[in-house]
Amino acid sequence: MQPICNLANTGTNIALIVAAALGIIAVASLILYQLKTGKAFSKGFFALFIFFSIVGTLVLSPAATHAEGAADCPTGTQASQNGGTTPTPLTCPENWVIVPGNSAYNTTDFCVMKYSAKNSGGTVASSRDINGDGSFLSNTYSGGTAVSTASGQPWANISQTDAISASQTAGAGAHLITENEWMTIAHNVLANPANWCDADGSNCGNAPGTSGKVLASGHNDSSPNMPLESSIDDSQACYGTVTQGVNTACGSEAGTQKRTLTLSNGSVLWDLVGNVGHWTASTETLGNLPSFSGNGGPLEYNLDSGFGLSVVDTWGTLAYTNPAIQNPAAASWGAGQGVGFLFSDFSSGSSTVVAFVRGGTWVSGPFAGTFTLFLAFTPSDSYSYVGFRAAL
Asked: What architecture is the 90-392 domain classified under in CATH?
């Protein structure tokens, strides 16, 4: 089966057509000559005719070969004939970005929302005054569509179960981001120097793990005490982190925090870390969660603090929670480097199911990070500080 745009035989076809046309012209000329002169052709004339035919064939053959080798389908096209297709570059909806795949997590390139999901068209079923002064009303929605926009508050107060359904409203094939997709993003941004900065989000562009630098971990200091809207300008990375709705350049005032993370392909994600946590699609039982000496609680990803997870431990299905799995240099990194921490509500022998929450929130402080993982909430729980984002 050949794709329509496969032109591999075009050169050969052109050569045959040209040769046939020349042959017809030559024969017609010979016939006209004989009719006008009445002379018969000599054997020498036919010998010359055959000679020039051979020479013409030799001249046309390289042209055919060249045309065949140069005939490729146009870049970025997709055509089919009897099911044949040619690859096309991945394209994402507006305000979604392409994430490079990672074979360690069985992911190929995929699309993810640039911003935390917002609700479009839903009905506000209830509101909660977080600060008690009307400065921030945390809405619970009934219905609506999940959209990726800079404006609006993140769609929170939604359970993992409902986030799975809500993600599907974002478009054909959309789904709640999976653990493997989240970890693909986490390892990608971890390795990008653009994300290693001073704590105030300034002076970025440092080798991962550089002393005194941290992996940017978003709005997490509860000041302002609410999740923030994003800026449509990716250069305003610390937008709103000092005064809500105001762009304050990273490092220009105390309290600025970098809310953007940059992927290796240059794509920018807002609020993957901090602001609101994000449900992912995974679950686990309390009895199978990581623990330290049989206890749950907050666990560092390294042992430097004397309380954490050993790099060699895999914890069954949770092997990929440790940054060092893909980046051995991260074996000694933890909250101090901005990678986050793991909170485990471990309960020995318990079959209670808990859902995964990633990234940290606007009140997580230094414990927010791309690898931060909360394992304490059931799939039916909902909180004002937990939202979601969809992937394709």
From this structure: Alpha-Beta Complex (3.90)
